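Course assignment 3, question 2. Fill in each field.
Student: A.L.
Task: Predict the tertiary structure for the chain below.
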Amino acid sequence: MSLSAFVRQLAGRSAPIKSADAELLARFIATRDESAFAVLVDRHTPTVLGACRRLLGHAQDAEDAAQAVFLLLARNAGRVRQPAALGAWLHGVAVRVARKARARRRPIQPLPEVTSPTLPPEPSWADARRVIDEVLAALPETLRAPLVLCYLEGLTRDEAAARLGWPLTTLRGRLERGREKLRAGLGRRGFPLAAGLLAVVLESPAPAAPNWTTTTTAIATGAIPPPLTVVPLSTGVLPVKAPLVRIAVIACLGLATAGVFAARRSEPPSITPPKPQARVLAPDPNAGPPDKALAGEWRLTFTWDGATRTETLRFVDGKHLVWQVHLRNPGVDTSVTLRGKYELKNGELTYDVTERWNGEEPMRVKPEDAVRKYQMTWAENRTGFELKNKDGGNVRTYRAVKDEVAVLPFPAVLNKIERTIKKEPKYTGDPRYLLLAFGLEAKFRTWVVLDGTTLYIDRNGNGDLTEDGEKFDNPNTVQKGLDGKVSVTLTGIDLTEPDGTSHSIKVITTLKITDTSTYVRLGSQARGGPDQLAGLTNLRLAETAKEAQVLHFGGNEVIVRPSLSMPSPLSVDKAVEFRVQVGAPGIGSGSFASFVGEKLAEGLGPVAEFEFTPLKAGDKPVKVTANLIDRCCGDQFFTKVAVPDGVKIGVNAVKVTLSFPACPWGKVESTTHFVDVLPKQK
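Answer field:
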């Protein structure tokens, strides 16, 4: 996909609303076309959200469940057997997800009875609306599909027959049999409804939030991390390709009961958890330093069935503890970070959690999850300690972590960049910052600052954001949701150096998730060169100029990396598409700017050299070389790779060396990475 096509996609013009479900699903499967998926989300939200609302009776729980349904669709799009009946498939998944959400709710103790028992009350209208989706989901798909299309999606019989590819007489017969079975099922549940009342019971729900489609599509396609309230609902509902995904979610969310797993201890793979944001680790100047014995990092790592769990504790000052849980399974990499106040008295550690993050996204802390108590016992040499959960009795042992200095490589020309702004306007809110650097020496630098829905862009690179023409308070699109999320898109901004050299920002889209978390996607072009694209996956706007990420366009340092936007672990079961991106590194998380759209000479692309470790000791590694010359989605190079027999599987099981001889965008130094291998499906 070219960058200009991506701009049209963001403006909502690239996927016609009348495209058939099967066509849209095929486009998404083939090229991960986000615009096609957005149309599916928009089209089927009334069905999915309506079922979740009827079953759960709570607006926020229903939205979480509905987002989990579309997340499952994105992950399992290729497993929908009848794409023409996608609505029926989604309705069935919605019922299963809503059941799971209902089961996860904290049970409510009934009030004590003060009167003698009476006959059970007659079923209410609300009861009927909750039951009907469960009865509908239990019908065979051939009978459920026409009911979903006609009653939930509002299609006429002719339209439903055309959608399903059935003769009209076939649809009529199955619709009538479906109604009869639905009425019979409802009757057995105590709800003898007439046919004419089905449409009333299944009335359309209140509309979703204005930015529902944008946010849900971003979550489902991996552009932004799913909220922790959605993650557990998206596992265990369908047969999963990687059984360990369930374990990862349970382990991440079960910090309060950590250690309950019957872990099979072994030498863990060398996995370094991501470091939390600086502001999460910032000490409170009023809290004083921690006790010398507690200073530093303390870590626990264990493995089971190919998964690795790492817990890291940091006593950042005399009152605050940061506790991070990092989970790695084949194909899964996720972390949860907690920050709160601690008190250590007579060997008892009390931890009151006040803040929580899923990755970098802040999440609400539930009151019942906030306070944890542990018995703390030091090792004799004081190089570690044990924590025993006072509620569950589980014991975990943490060891001191030696000083580790991990420096991510970035171009030497960016070393001397000072992230300061000469003159800033008077902002109306809390500004968020990003710095762009252009050219071989990165001497032309442009600040991008977001203030609410207004963007300030330093078009001439002089560091003065108060000049005329640098305030954009009327962007192309602004979408505001009832949940506080705000999306802003601006296109076509020209940048000019003092000598007349021109660059351009093709598109910039910001997505505010919370007051402290705003993601950004930006496409740019330096000196008429190739288009480059960075974000949304993990590129955030910084809270201060000094912390701003730096993107580099038009440089000559290029790297090849495994795709982050479309991760591709290998699989024992079959050959899968291994994907990489080619681009320019910057400074900070998410600062990689990939090259997009440009057509290359036939047969030209990156090279991946895989080294598989044999199961049998003493055998030589198995080496496989793959030329990644196929392309899709604008910035993805890929080819199918099969896993040889008799090699190790699991997290970081395969070493891969990436290179790009004759790269047209600059010299590429070979880099080494590690790739997961999914186990055989059960």
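Instructor remarks: DSSP finds 13 helices and 30 strands in the chain. Residues 1-18, 106-125, 240-269, 403-408 have pLDDT under 50 and may be disordered.
Grade: pending
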